[in-house]
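Q: I'm building a small set of examples for a reading group on sequence design. Run inverse folding on the following structure and report the sequence directly after it, with nothing in between.
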């Protein structure tokens, strides 16, 4: 249920692997009848109302939200969630990205079958951890993009290409995936080269100081260090 990016991507990814009907948000009353699984691929704020509009049947009713609790799917007895850890820009590219993606699942075991049809790699997130899980996903994706926006601004101010810095970031991520964040940390903070940090602050525009220092403190904590008083 839902013809947006998530619903369209799911339907396209399942083509040829399952019998799928992609529906709009019209009459939901019989949507949970005569089917195995009803997926509500709608905005989070609409999940509870959509679930309540569907007369309970034998179907498992699921959503694709990372943060919405399963209780929002009342009054259905069999409920589940599947949250793919990928962005879905459109149905075609979304379908490609879904196949083999990491997926957080919870609820009825049938949701594992859906993940298998998609070739997904799954892990379960407890109901009590759902908000923390979604915050972690937001940090991993959205906050990283915001950080790269700072890199774009600084590269543009020097009239140098941004791609070398993005490749540097990709290498740092690869090192983190291989060895963990603490082992992957390099740079002046990890070497306690505080003069270099002071030079950075002298060169950075004032409006960039807060983000730089926030992450410098985080890097120092990761390295088991504290910033000098004039930097803290």
């Amino acid at each position: 249920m839902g013809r947006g990016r998530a619903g369209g991507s799911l339907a396209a990814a399942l083509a040829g692997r399952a019998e799928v009907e992609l529906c709009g948000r019209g009459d939901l009353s019989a949507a949970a009848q005569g089917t195995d699984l009803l997926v509500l691929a709608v905005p989070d704020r609409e999940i509870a109302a959509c679930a309540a509009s569907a007369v309970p049947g034998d179907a498992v009713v699921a959503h694709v939200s990372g943060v919405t609790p399963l209780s929002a799917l009342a009054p259905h007895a069999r409920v589940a969630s599947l949250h793919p850890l990928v962005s879905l820009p459109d149905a075609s590219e979304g379908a490609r990205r879904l196949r083999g993606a990491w997926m957080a699942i919870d609820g009825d075991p049938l949701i594992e079958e859906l993940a298998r049809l998609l070739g997904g790699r799954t892990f379960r997130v407890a109901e009590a951890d759902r908000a923390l899980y979604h915050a972690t996903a937001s940090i991993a994706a959205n906050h990283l993009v915001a950080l790269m926006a700072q890199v774009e601004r600084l590269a543009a101010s020097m009239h140098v290409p941004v791609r070398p810095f993005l490749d540097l970031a990709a290498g740092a991520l690869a090192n983190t995936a291989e060895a963990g964040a603490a082992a992957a940390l390099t740079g002046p903070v990890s070497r306690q080269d505080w003069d270099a940090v002071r030079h950075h602050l002298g060169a950075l525009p004032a409006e960039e100081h807060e983000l730089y220092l926030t992450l410098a403190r985080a890097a120092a904590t990761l390295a088991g260090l504290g910033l000098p008083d004039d930097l803290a």
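The two ends are 51 Å apart (CA to CA).
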